[in-house]
Amino acid sequence: MQGTQVAAGYQLQQFGSAPSGPPRREMANPEVVTSSCSFHQEENGRTFNQTTSPSEELLLEDQMRRKLKFFFMNPCEKFWARGRKPWKLAIQIIKLAMVTIQLVFFGLSNQMVVAFKEDNTIAFKHLFLKGYVDQTDNTYAVYTQNDVYNQIIFAVNQYLQLRNISVGNHAYEGKGTEQSGMAICQHFYKQGNICPGNDTFDIDPKIETECFSVEPDESFYIGTLEENKLNLTLDFHRLLTVELKFKLKAINLQTIRHHELPDCYDFTLTITFDNKAHSGRIKISFDNDISIKECKDWHVSGSVQRNTHYMMIFDGFVILICSASLILCFRSVIRGLQLQQEFVNFFLLHYKKEISVSDRMEFVNGWYIMLIISDLLTITGSILKMEIQAKSLTSYDVCSILLGTSTLLVWIGVIRYLSFFQKYNLLILTLQAALPNVVRFCCCAAMIYLGYCFCGWIVLGPYHAKFRSLNVVSECLFSLINGDDMFATFADMQRKSYLVWLFSRIYLYTFISLFIYMILSLFIALITDTYETIKHYQQDGFPETELRTFISECKDLPNSGRYRFEDEPPVSIFCCCKK
Q1: Could you tell me where the beta strands, DSSP code E, fall in 163-238?
Q2: 382-431 tens-digit pLDDT
Q3: What is the pTM of this model?
Q4: CA distance 128 to 159
Q5: Pairing between strand 282-293 and 141-142?
Q6: How far apart are CA 460 and CA 504, in angstroms?
Q7: Residues 15, 71: contact at Cβ < 8 Å?
Q8: For residues 246 and 181, is the Cβ–Cβ distance under 8 A?
Q9: Around 29, how many Cα atoms within 13 Å sit in the side-chain half-sphere?
């Protein structure tokens, strides 16, 4: 089992590589050296460089074996071998705790932001959409001309009376001493003469736009449909869309209870009446574009500002810990690559053989690369979080993605240290061994899956809500693979076309049978077979590669003292437990 690369990468000359003068005292007796890690040249029939003596060749082999064996030791073995403290292990444990605490605090703050956005959006829908009921966004529409005018007039009146009817701290957007108003725009064809009764039409597809604005005024009221003061006239035969666009402002005061400074919010609201289909049904949609910014002038009594400073100091410590982890992991990766090149040159010089790609990849520690990525994400996310707390930026979504992904990688990285123990290493070894076959299997299965996606979208899309777009089709089919919502998928199919209804039955039955009973079963069998193979290897031994065979000829134990330098102090038994 491959160990860690902590404190690896010492150069060959540190072990005393082929000196021109007398060898070091530790390696002065060739019999002592070859008793544990070396063997005779004649027994193996290897070809050596003829410019050095046999004893020097054996000394070089012995040094390389020890160097490689030390490189693949776990942190505790390295401590017993050379007294190296497991700094990276300690830093990863500290980083795990600090990053998790940081994520929890930011998650609580982000939840308040998201909740405030959603609550305001729902409140605006009830304020400006006449007769709105929750969870009816996809079906909210009007069907008569009077209903269209009533909806527009209702929204305008509610906007003008906002201060008197809203229970929130909403206000109009101010531009200097004035306030911005509501823009009402209609988009229509330039010219159109449509006569469905005669099956004739004459239309100019060029789109024109007419707009006017309503300025907020508490004393102004446009009245009912009969008292219409907007002077708005809509030609429904040419009408495409009507848009009501206006801006409101609010302050999120609930963050004060959690010892955070409040944010100022700008809401850009758009009510759209969609008549592009000219089907007799005008859909009404509501869009809320939210931006967060620092309040211009604020004052909070108490300890809110002090707590904000404490959180920024904590974020600074997180950045410091992640920077140390980044430097150590990057150094280990570089040393691994250096040792890889040194071993390749050594094997080519002394054995006249090239090292395989799999043996070369043994020196590239994927765990360290993952930790480097995690550290970079954490540092970037922490800086962004500090800017958010200082009210310089408001990129909550970007920060949450960075911190969430980095925390995920940090917790996955903990598995690396569990992999040093055989009973805990089974999951990692199974995933590593099964990954190539799983990727190839998924590529083949994806071709069939995509074929079903395109087929379902083009055939069943007009008749089934779950097949209206490729994204929705993919989600529906993936749910069917996992046994979710099967009956509803069958039952929701419209029967307007018997041929399509019959095709849908054949389509769904073949897809479910193929993917659940065959492809999914083969996928599970692939993982199970790899699992059994790994268990067999753990009992009888893993297949030996050239690299492992070369290292295995060194029988020195970590606490034998042969990995230490003469100037290094002895190891204390109280610093690290023997594995």
Answers
A1: 171-172, 174-175, 178-179, 182-195, 200-214
A2: 999 988 887 777 788 899 999 999 999 999 988 887 777 777 778 888 88
A3: 0.72
A4: 7
A5: antiparallel
A6: 7
A7: no
A8: yes
A9: 5
Structure tokens at 441: 């299997």
Task: Locate 346 and state its tokens.
Answer: 């050594």
Contacts of 293 by beta carbon, 8 Å cutoff, 6+ apart: 263, 264, 266, 391, 394
pLDDT tens across 500-558, in order?
Answer: 999 999 999 999 999 999 999 999 999 999 989 888 887 777 777 778 778 777 777 77
Q: In this structure, what DSSP letter does residue 167 have? A: S
How confident is the model over 87-143, as pLDDT tens digits? 888 899 999 999 999 999 898 888 888 889 999 999 999 999 998 988 887 889 999
The closest of 8, 85, 7, 69 to 576, measured between CA atoms, is 85
Q: Provide the residue count of the chain.
A: 579
Phi-psi region of 490 (alpha: psi -120 to 50; beta: other; left: phi over 0): alpha
Q: How far apart are the first and last CA of the chain?
A: 14
Please compute, for residue 130, the number of CA atoms within 13 A of its CA located in the half-sphere on the CB side: 15
Which long-range contacts does 435-442 make (Cβ < 8 Å, 24+ apart)? 437/526, 437/530, 438/523, 438/526, 438/527, 441/522, 441/523, 441/526
- Residue given tokens 């776990």 in the structure block: 74
Give one DSSP letter per residue of 271-335, joined into a string.
EEEE-TT-SS-EEEEEEEEEEEE--SS----SSHHHHHHHHHHHHHHHHHHHHHHHHHHHHHHHH
DSSP-based helix, strand, coil % in the chain, nearest 5 = 55, 15, 30
How many Cα atoms sit within 13 Å of 450 on the Cβ side?
A: 6
Rg (CA), the chain: 36
Closest to 558 (Cα-Cα) out of 543, 574, 576: 576
Looking at residue 333, its amino acid is V
Residue 264 in tokens: 């100022």
Which segments of 505-558 are extended strands (E)? none
Contacts of 343 (CB under 8 A, 6+ apart): 64, 68, 355, 363, 547
CA 302, 304, 309, 314 dihedral sign is positive
Please name the residues in contact with 340: beta carbons below 8 A apart, sequence gap of 6 or more. Answer: 360, 363, 364
Check pLDDT > 80 for residue 308: no
Phi, psi of 267, deg, nearest 5: -110, 120
* Contact yes or no for 250/168 (Cβ under 8 A): yes
Q: Taking residues 269-276, what's their average pLDDT?
A: 94
Number of C-beta neighbours around residue 47 at 10 A: 11
Q: How far apart are CA 459 and CA 31, in angstroms?
A: 81
Residue type, 136: T
Residue 544 CB-density burial (10 A; 0-12 exposed, 13-18 middle, 19+ buried) = exposed
